TrEMBL record:
Pfam family for this entry, one: PGI
The keyword Isomerase belongs to this UniProt entry's keyword annotation: yes
InterPro entries: G6P_Isomerase, SIS_dom_sf
GO cellular component: cytosol
GO biological process: gluconeogenesis; glucose 6-phosphate metabolic process; glycolytic process
Keyword Translocase carried by entry: no
Protein name listed in UniProt: Glucose-6-phosphate isomerase
Reaction catalyzed: alpha-D-glucose 6-phosphate = beta-D-fructose 6-phosphate
Metabolic or biological pathway, per its Swiss-Prot or TrEMBL entry: Carbohydrate degradation; glycolysis; D-glyceraldehyde 3-phosphate and glycerone phosphate from D-glucose: step 2/4
Molecular function per GO: carbohydrate derivative binding; glucose-6-phosphate isomerase activity; monosaccharide binding
Record keywords: Gluconeogenesis, Glycolysis, Isomerase
Domain of life of the organism encoding this protein: Bacteria
Length: 541
């Protein structure tokens, strides 16, 4: 049964501030023009990009033909005993399938990491019943290409024909399509090229891996189709218009952060998907909305949100929520996509480009030319099993402990700034590090985000360089016990992981943002020491 999709502005003051923007969007017929794929909505400078990025508005119709293809392939695979699906993809190629399958309760192994231990864990599953979906819009994503090469070798070593186990999702005419076809991969799906990655949830990128894993993708499209009339209507009751107006009005008042918490939606991990949508779409030209996913409506940052943040519930407007968005998964995806594009119009930015993403990739590629992913770095100090690395003048020379370095990083944040925790670790075995987000938020008084590297580079990385320049950054890297070669490439996974961390840190430092890197020389004891150091910080008043 389809759940009615809605956006409720629960804060009366915000509702009043949003009302003129609601009327502006209605009078401009912005919602219906968006549904009609009008590329002029965001101004002349955005028109060229928007003209090739708006096919997502009708995916609930145009993706229907995929369902039968997916169902047929899934039945074929199951007939052969191939019931374990591994998805190699980053950003928009992994976030949507992950939330779709997690909500449906179907198993999907998501590989969006360069950590050797996590990749090895995926390899040590039952290869005899495994198929790999290699998903990349550009067809050149370095992480995904590395996973493809590693799995090809693993299948071959087990006497399995790799081509029969590889399924591709990519844009037409990409290098990955060529590779898939020339290698005789089992199936190559090409997606609509006029859909950007972060708007691709209802395209082949979202539907193929989720459907092969057993999720009801036809139902997902049904839910989106049922919502389309309301989000495309030029009416002040349109939930996408109301959500866009609320977020934009809050931004005008200084609330450039959007704190996201689930309030009983029944959807698993939605904030992780919408994080990329908001950050990459709005975080540019020195403005934008920073999404801050948190644990629940009682979490630090949500329950304690100040004037720089808008608490938004995924589900009913519970607790401190200023806004609540409620509905089925397919309906909420379309609601947030429409609202984000409309917010881009109100903010005066192009919601379909990502001008600052390439800088970190270029820096990482440069470091890969050297040994081990970059030059050996001398730590500023060593505290137990943690090396302290910092560049620039924000850290005083006398700092010798992790707690002192963390306090210095927090103090370096400007008024109404934010703290971004970036963990280049194994998000399965090192999952305990996620406790740092609420602990640091509580003790710093700053809005605090948490991202796994390198996947956050495909999500919030654009905002960090292009959005409001008031962030401070905590990178956590760790020693690797057993590395893994990438077949046909001159680097290992740990080298790639290190280059990505150092490269992103370089780009942030070039923008005069404080970056603290804590390297765990022993991951197990280092994590314990790091959590203890955070707990030793005084709680912000």
């Amino acid at each position: 049964m389809t759940t009615e999709t809605s956006a409720e502005i629960a804060d009366p003051s915000l509702a009043r501030e949003a009302e003129p923007l609601v009327q502006r969007l209605v009078n401009d017929r912005a919602a219906s023009e968006l549904a009609a794929q009008d590329p002029t909505l965001w101004g002349p400078e955005a028109e060229s990009e928007a003209s090739i990025r708006l096919s997502w508005t009708t995916l609930h119709e145009t993706s229907r033909g995929l369902v039968a293809e997916i169902d047929a392939l899934r039945a074929e695979l199951y007939e052969e005993g191939l019931t374990r699906v591994v998805l190699a993809g980053m950003g928009g190629s992994s976030l949507a399938p992950e939330v779709i399958t997690a909500t449906a309760g179907t198993a999907l192994v998501v590989l969006d990491t360069t950590d050797p231990a996590q990749v090895r864990d995926a390899l040590e599953g039952e290869l005899e019943r495994t198929v790999v979906v290699v998903s990349s819009k550009s067809g050149t994503t370095v992480e995904t290409d590395s996973h493809r090469r590693i799995f090809e070798r693993a299948f071959s070593e087990e006497g399995i024909d790799p081509a029969r186990r590889m399924i591709v999702v990519t844009d037409p005419d990409s290098p990955l399509q060529t590779t898939g076809e020339e290698s005789g991969y089992r199936k190559v799906f090409t997606a609509d090229p006029n859909v950007g990655g972060r708007y691709s949830a209802l395209s082949a990128f979202g539907l193929v891996p989720a459907g092969l894993a057993g999720a009801d993708v036809a139902g997902l499209l049904d839910d989106a189709e049922s919502v389309f009339p309301s989000v495309s209507a030029d009416d002040e009751s349109n939930p996408a218009i109301r959500l866009a107006a609320a977020l934009s009005a809050a931004h005008r008042s200084g609330a450039e952060k959007v704190v996201l918490a689930d309030s009983g939606s029944g959807i698993v991990g939605f904030a992780d998907w919408v994080e990329q949508l908001i950050a990459e779409s709005t975080g540019k030209s020195g403005i934008g909305l920073l999404p801050v996913p948190v644990e629940n409506v009682e979490a630090p940052g949500f329950a304690t949100a100040g004037g720089d943040a808008t608490p938004v519930a995924i589900g009913p407007a519970a607790g401190a929520a200023a806004v609540g968005t409620h509905g089925s998964l397919g309906g909420l995806m379309l609601l947030w996509e429409f609202a984000t594009a409309l917010a881009g119009r109100l903010l005066g930015i192009n919601p379909f480009d990502q001008p600052d993403v390439e800088a970190a990739k270029q820096a990482a590629r440069g470091l890969l030319d050297g040994p081990a992913g970059g030059p050996v770095a001398t730590p500023t100090a060593v505290d137990g099993d943690i090396e302290i690395h910092a560049a620039g003048e924000w850290l005083s020379p006398g700092v010798g402990t992790v707690a002192e370095a963390l306090r210095a990083l927090i103090n370096a944040a400007p008024a109404n700034g934010y703290l971004a925790v970036q963990a280049y670790l194994d998000r399965l075995d090192d999952a305990s590090i996620s406790v740092l987000r609420p602990e640091l938020a509580r003790r710093s008084g700053l809005q605090t985000t948490f991202g796994w590297g390198p996947r956050f580079l495909h999500s919030t990385g654009q905002y960090h360089k292009g959005g409001h320049q008031n962030g401070v950054f905590l990178q956590v890297t760790g020693a690797v016990d057993e590395d893994m070669e990438v077949p046909g490439r001159p680097y290992t996974l740990s080298g790639l992981q290190r280059a990505q961390a150092l490269g992103d840190g370089q780009v942030l430092a070039q923008r005069n943002r404080p970056v603290l890197r804590l390297h765990l020389t022993d991951r197990t004891t280092g994590l314990v020491e790091l959590v203890k150091a955070v707990q030793d910080l005084r709680t912000a008043s």
